[in-house]
Design goal:
The chain is an alpha+beta fold. It contains seven helices and seven strands, in the order ααβββαααααββββ. Helix 5 packs across helix 7 and helix 6 packs across helix 7. 32% of the residues are buried.
């Protein structure tokens, strides 16, 4: 476990003095998974359920900490306030809360890749995702339904958490690769919530 508590993490808030926190900007995917898990541990939230990141943030900062802003297009934590864009649906609120927590946990100036990866770890915790994915396999609609995320997000997390090699293809975007373990039966899966996207399981 990482236990460097220098810099921003020398904060009066007890969460940032817990073992497992790091101020390093260059963190491995495994480090980011541990960081997300440590946040859930700190909040004493169950490690086997699909817990909303909104509940995680509320446990740390309080339900009255949330506020909306019409001048922001991302989530952030300012002082002890969780600031989100206005008029979000439930799924978007969960995602932007994950991004707010991600920025708060990482060192100031952390790159956007790390912010997005940690946000995904918070939004869909590996400890909960793995338990279900071991039962379903790459059934992206079921995984998406269970965690209230898109099938694209479910596919990417499947590769990250389970290690299966896959590539997500979406029109107008670069292919996104995840995992490093090739399967026995390579195949292509068309995503039902967005048929223009498909996943190649390698």
């Amino acid at each position: 476990m990482l236990n460097d508590c220098r810099g921003r993490f020398l904060s009066p808030h007890p969460l940032k003095t817990q073992p497992g926190w790091s101020v390093y900007r260059s963190m491995t995917p495994g480090d980011l998974e541990l960081l997300a898990e440590a946040a859930y541990h700190y909040a004493k939230l169950p490690l086997t359920d699909a817990v909303s990141p909104v509940r995680l943030a509320a446990t740390i900062f309080g339900w009255d900490a949330f506020c909306e802003s019409r001048t922001t297009n991302d989530g952030s934590i300012v002082g002890s306030s969780v600031v989100l864009p206005a008029n979000l649906n439930a799924n978007a609120r969960a995602w932007f809360t994950s991004r707010a927590l991600s920025r708060w946990l990482l060192e100031p100036g952390a790159n956007e890749v790390s912010v997005a990866l940690l946000a995904a770890c918070i939004r869909t915790p590996a400890f909960a995702f793995r338990e279900l994915a071991e039962e379903t396999g790459p059934d992206f609609p079921d995984l998406a339904w269970a965690f209230c995320i898109s099938e694209s997000s479910a596919a990417l997390r499947f590769g990250e958490v389970m290690g299966d090699s896959l590539v997500l293809h979406a029109p107008g975007k670069l292919p996104r690769m995840r995992g490093n373990r090739r399967g026995i039966q390579p195949r292509t899966v068309r995503l039902s919530d967005d048929p223009s996207r498909f996943v190649r399981l390698l």
